[in-house]
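REQUEST ID: PR-0412
SUBMITTED BY: lab tech R.K.
PRIORITY: routine
TASK: structure prediction, single protein chain
INPUT:
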Amino acid sequence: MRDVAAPEIGPGEVLVEVHAAGADPGVWIMMSGRPLAVRLAAGVKQPRQPVLGRAVAGVVAAVGSKVTRFRTGDQVYGTAESGSFAEFTRARERRLARMPANLTFEQAAAVPISAVTALQAIKDARVRAGHRVLVIGAGGGVGTYAVQLAKQRGAIPTGVCGPAKVSLVRSLGATDVIDYSQHEIDAHGVLYDAVIDTAGNRPLSLLRRVIAPTGVIALVGGGHAKGAILGGFGRQLAAPLISPFGRARVTGVTAREQHGDLDELTGLLESGAITPVVGRTYPLAEAADAMRYLEEGHPTGKIIILVRR
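STATUS: complete
OUTPUT:
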């Protein structure tokens, strides 16, 4: 840790006093520079952004001259521009929303990246009531939300996870759970209307064996997958190229943080339709330990950095 100046905000930005921040695979990818293709955007020799972290929950400390939706003292959550592993961060107004009244800062910081990504995957996969939905990586940060959001839409979710997470995934609403240490996803011969793959380590040929002819395969993330240059992102880049050659559609999903999605999620969170799953918390001084745990690639739910208690 080191002392740095508080970030300066522009006319459409908000200065947030950080209470909690979310640690997600995207943070690890930017920090490690792996896969190598990430360095083109994040910095070749070292991260271009010196402060890590994107997801944030905190209190508005100041607002820019063109900000109309927030004022000092509001509790907000969303995506930071200047790094959220810090006492203060800046964020664009359009990437923040008011915190759900029933959540703690710790819980709220688990929402902005992971839940938004899951929501966009559910929408991109056109999940509707009655659909069979396979969520791969169902016990992770995005997967725990994808299971709940599929269930909330009246779909029939099946989760894929390791043995330690089976009970959790069932409790989130999964009708069935596949323990990948015992069975592969095609072992039971079931065809799904949507496959949401948050793990990134299965070949597209396998995913296509379990998708219905008119279904959608949504590829989420995959930075921990094999491949020094592209990692799991190679599948996402290939998705629009291979999708026309099969009846099932293949699409890549990346988080596009906007307050509209956060506002939608706020309603679901306040109604109890979905609940954040916080797996571990670390004080800011131990953020490096959080990154080491994240690097292992199998966290349960979301990892949270506590900045203020």
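NOTES: Residues 35-44 have pLDDT under 50 and may be disordered.
REVIEWED BY: pending
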